[in-house]
Each structure stands twice: as C-alpha cells, then as structure tokens.
Amino acid sequence: MTIKNLEDLRKIKERAKLSTSARRKSETQVIVGMGTCGIAAGARDVMAAILDEMSRAGVHDVSVMQDGCIGMCQKEPLVDIVRPGEPRVTYGNVKPADVPAIISEHLVNGRIVSGLVVAKV
Amino acid sequence: MEKLARAHVLICGGTGCSSSGSKEIIPEMRGKLKAKGMEDEIKVVETGCHGLCELGPLVIVYPEGVFYIRVKASDVEEIVENHLIKGRVVDRLLYREPATHATVPDYDDIAFYKKQQRYALVNCGHINPESLEEYIGTDGYEGLAKALSMKPEEVIEEVKKSGLRGRGGGGFPTGTKWQFTRNAVGSKKYVICNADEGDPGAFMDRSVLEGDPHRVLEGMIICGYAVGADEGYIYCRAEYPLAIKRLRGAIGQALESGLLGENILGSGFNFMIHIKEGAGAFVCGEETALIASIEGRRGMPRPRPPFPANSGLWGKPSNINNVETFANVPSIMRDGGDYFASQGTETSKGTKVFALTGKINNTGLAEVPMGITMREIIYDIGGGIPNGKKFKAVQIGGPSGGCLPEQLLDLAVDYESLIRAGAMMGSGGLVVMDETTCMVDVARYFLNFTQDESCGKCTPCREGTKRMLEILNRICEGKGTEEDIPLLESMAQSIKAGSLCALGQTAPNPVLSTLNFFRHEYEAHIRDHKCPAGVCTAFVGYTITEGCRGCGLCKKVCPADAISGEVKAKHIIDPDKCIKCGACQSKCPFKAIEKG
Ligand SMILES: Cc1cc2nc3c(=O)[nH]c(=O)nc-3n(C[C@H](O)[C@H](O)[C@H](O)COP(=O)(O)O)c2cc1C
Ligand code: SF4
Ligand code: SF4
Ligand code: SF4
Ligand code: FES
After folding, report:
1. Considering the domain A21-120, what is its CATH architecture?
2. Would the N or C end of chain A have less CB density within 10 A of its end CB?
C-alpha cells in the first residue's frame, strides 16, 4: 500500500478501525446461543451469516458474543440483540436467511423484526 | 476486504511472555480454532508487552476483555471449548488481586491497570506491532501528517507547549533541545534515538520498541522535519533482538508505503532511519559516548560543550532523545501540546513509565501521570509488599538513583521533587525494598554496578568509586570505623564535582541517600557490630546454648572444624573458624544452636 497524502491515510484508518473493532466491548451486542443444542440446530451458520452481514454492511462497534444453553433448546438457534437503553430481544429458530433483516432493521435501526421474537426483557 | 471477526484472542509475544512459553500457545490456538472451523470467526493476534510479564504468558480475549495469566499450551483447549464456544470464562486462569485473592475477569478492572494512564504505552499489548494498518487504525501517523502541514517552527512550538521533557534521565525540555538543533548552523543534521537502556531491570524502552515500533519511528520523523534533519539513527542494544526485528520490519513497511524515505506523504520532506546495534556497555547510553560508538570509535563520554545539538554525529548538529520521549511525540502533535500539558505537575508534564521490581506484588511496567504519589504506585498499582512484610525503602532512578524511606511515600513524583529528595527520575526504575533489606548492602550493590561500568576516563570516578566501595565492604564486614561515614560523604562530594559525565556525577547518590535516611543502619554496623536487617553475614554468629546434650552431630557436619567438645558435654563454636554455613544448626536434634 502506498500512502500519498492525508486522505489515503484516513481511508486506511477507517478500514483498520473495522478490523480491530472487536477489541472493545460495546454496549450494543449480538449474542448467539452456542451450546450443544444451538450448534446442533445450526447456530454456527447463523454466526457466520451475522459476521458476513456485519462485514458487508460495515457495522462496527458492536460486540458479537456467544452464550451457552439457556434452556430454550427447542427454539435454537437463539440470537439476542442488546441496544443500550432498550429491552433485550431474543429471536428464536433463526435461520441464516433471517440474519440480514435482524442486522439492518434491529441492530442498526432499532426496529424489532416481530415475527421471530421469542422473548423481550 | 478482511472479514469481521467476532472475537480477538490477543497473545502476548513480548520478550517476557515469549520466554515463558507464549510462542507455543500461538500455533496451538490457531490449530485448535482451525480444527473447530472457527479460524475466520476468531482472530488470533500476537501483541507486544502488557507490562505484567511476571504473570505471563498473557492471553486476552475480546470483546469481553478477559485477562488470562500463566497460560500454557495445554490450557488452550479449555479456553476454546468453554470461553470461545460457550461464552464461559475459564476461572482458574484469571488474574487474582494480590491483597484479596479475588479473581478479576475484566482487564480494565485490574488494579494494576486502573490507576495507570497509558499514553506512550497506549498500544502496547493492544495491537499487532507488525501491522502498519493496525497502527494507523489507532490514529498512527496522523501526528506526522499534521506536523507536515505545519511549519517546522510551529511543530517545535507545539512540543514546547506540551512541556515534554526527556525521559532518558536528564529531563531536559524536548522542545528547547529541538530548537537548539534547528538553530544550529549546517545543512546536514541527524536525529538519534537512544535505545541503549542500560539500567539493570529496566525494560520500558524495549516494551515500546517491541509493542509499538511505528510510534517511535513517527516521533523521529516528526523530529527530523522540525529540526531540519534528513537522516536518523536508532542506537539499540544488541541484547534486544526482538525490538530490532520489529524496528526493521516497521522501517520496511514505512518505506514501502511512503511514510519514510523520499517525499513523505507528498510533502517534499525526505527522511531515512538506520539501526545501529550497540555492544551493551552502560556508559554507551551517555549521549556523547553513544555518538562515538555509532561512529565506530570506543564508547567514551567527552566533555560538553559542544553539545550534540551543535556538534554531534560526525560533527554535525544532532538531536538525541530517548525512546519514550519520541513515543510521546505523535500524540502530542495529534492532540496538541495543551492536552499533554494538562497532565502532570507544574514542572513535569504528561506521564512516565516506571519499571516496578523488588519486593512488590505486581512487578512490571506501569505508566502513570506525573505527580502521582509513590504510595499510589507501590500500593495501588504495585499491590503492596508481599508476604506481609513491612516496606522499608524504594530506590528510584536506576543504579545512580536514591533510596527514599517510608516518610516520603506521599511525595508527588516529578523531576524536581525527586532531586530535592536526593533521588532522581532517571529512566524510571523503581526497586522496592522491605524490612529484610540492609541499606548499607544496597548502597554497596549499586555502587558496585556503577564502579564496574565506569569508563575510567576521569580519576575521581574511576578511583573514587573504588575507594568508596572498599569502605562499604569494610563496614559490611564489621570492620568499619567512626571516620568512615564522614569519609564517604566527602569522597562522594569530590566524585560528584570532579566527574565528566553523569555516571560519575551521580554514582555516589545511593550512598548519600542511604546515609541521609538510614544513617542509623550504618552506625549499627560500625558501633554495635550489628546488621539490623540480618543480611551482612559478618554479624551473624552461631552459638550453642545450654540445651546442648553433647551428641556430637554438629561437630561431624561442620565443614570448618569450628566445633569442639567432649561427648555428653556442652560443645562450643570457635567464631574465628566458623564460616556461618548454618549446617550445624539444621543438624542439631535438640535445637541447641542459635543464630544471632
Ligand atoms: C552513564 C549514562 C547512561 C545513560 N544511559 C541512557 C540510556 O540508556 N538511555 C537514554 O535514553 N539515555 C541515557 N542517558 C542519558 C543520555 O545521555 C541523554 O541525556 C538522553 O538520551 C537524552 O534524551 P532525552 O532528552 O530524551 O532524555 C545516559 C546518561 C549517562 C550519563
Ligand atoms: S565520569 Fe566516569 S564514566 Fe563518565 S567519563 Fe568520567 S570515568 Fe567515564
Ligand atoms: S548437635 Fe546439638 S546437642 Fe549435639 S553436640 Fe551439637 S549442639 Fe550439642
Ligand atoms: S555454622 Fe557452619 S562453620 Fe559455623 S560452626 Fe556451624 S557448621 Fe561449623
Ligand atoms: S512480555 Fe508479555 S506482558 Fe510483558
């Protein structure tokens, strides 16, 4: 890479910020159930879809975390969205195809995707 | 474009953690993650030093920021299975506060880090030091870009405004030094970075070079622009192979991307940096000796003036600063000098990195705001004295620093307050001593170091330190006399006055400061033939008490034939023959031998 001026530098900086954004704990979180039940139900694919979608949309300053079994095995894969000052929303039976909507609607814009919600606290 | 990873596993690859085994953890972690098909989801990053090397190898897992200590390759599986898959923290690998033994999962909640203010060390342990991109991601080279948009004089003004002073020992105002070099006549000028770091136990500069090499390069390039130099040298001790490797890598990246070399960032400014490996003598850290060493001559100090700013490397104006000094420059340029000047005390701005060692719970590197008290450093950050022992003194400023007692613990640390107390900032070494330390012995230890490292050029330094050392040896051996104390004091003054460089000028400090605050210990050695801390073996004696049954066992084990006595009669020890090995005491079945 060649950096000819301040503008080039800023561009690299934006890109680099994204690649290190996981090194800060954010108040905004996506939590995927990765217990044995979750993984059996396809949580790994859902996780991959979440990371793909976030990279594609350039979403950063969001912590993507994992959780063990929380006793709702029949509803796995479970995905929780936490936004500061808002109730924690749990989505159930999430499929990779549902991920783009959850990310762009709820995580980014705060609009709950009603069909998949299993709990709100 | 690189895909977003949900978690980052930071594994410390600094010198400390590497030697305790982090090099095996890295491939193990990568392998285990790959086996689980998670190599894209979770990024493994090798970082520089976090300053808690004693507890290494360190592994930090983000986004949670969980801090694992003493991790072994065999622990990796558990971290992957429990933490990275199920989100369950591995309790047994967590850091524990020394005072309460409570586990602290969160990096930011660890007392050692809480009171620190990381400015020069901000990236150390947090970024991959081999990645230029990660450095840029933390605002790297922004200070340079800003500097290049200003006039050189304005850059110097900003550094002056920050109040930054040299972190290599002397504490000379950095902006003023830059001004001298800028004003010096000549078209060829140099920038030199002093990375000799000869103080025993010090490793702040090494950590910065290993953990954030671009920051030092950026500071040097800004300096080059400000003083009008087009070439720089980093004089780094050869015992720092990792630092040198990282520097070489960083120089290569900076050259390739146009941050170093010709026409930097399109500004028309050219600057090149070379590395010179030093042979390691302590005195080579002195600036004129260092310059001689770069030129290929023997590293010996010469009288100043002329100062390097006017006549330095190959007789050309040269600006020399310490690693930590340069490491502060990029952020000063980026944030402006006023921000830096808002931290610290009236005369000492910003932060200072200290290396805590000795009898302290958390040994390691800590960067603190100037003006913090010694008590906060030792008790809040350092976690206090281990094993319930009492604090006795702290030695600050490296081998020629001074020892400060308990009553000065609330001293606000800055350049001036330390000098007034008979110590000095030095490069930031802090050795904590507890009640089991003999202060005469400590003075002897440090003087022995400086005496050994004297280059021999000036008689007072060469011969004077030798004489002082002989006197200290005499006192420790129980042969001191009343005249010895005033003699030490007068010799100290003449060595300070008659030495060419700061090595000789400061070498007597440990003796003077212990005489000042712990004179009673010298007197106890001389008058009462006692070492109050029980360290000096000359005063330790073994005696046989009335409990002796005359079994003769002690006589058999004594390697010096010092014990005599008839069977079933009380035995006695001949103190002139006894070599104080203690063998008899541990052998006696009736505990009839006392040490005192
Ligand atoms: C015996 C002796 C050893 C020194 N060792 C070092 C050293 O290892 N690193 C360092 O930066 N300065 C060392 N100095 C101080 C340098 O001479 C010089 O003052 C310093 O590099 C200037 O940089 P600064 O203004 O940024 O502190 C030493 C001085 C003496 C007298
Ligand atoms: S003071 Fe000591 S180390 Fe310094 S030049 Fe003189 S003899 Fe050498
Ligand atoms: S070993 Fe103990 S009891 Fe036996 S002779 Fe020696 S001092 Fe006396
Ligand atoms: S301390 Fe050692 S040398 Fe002295 S009397 Fe005991 S055994 Fe002998
Ligand atoms: S080398 Fe790992 S903490 Fe210092």
Report:
1. 3-Layer(aba) Sandwich (3.40)
2. C
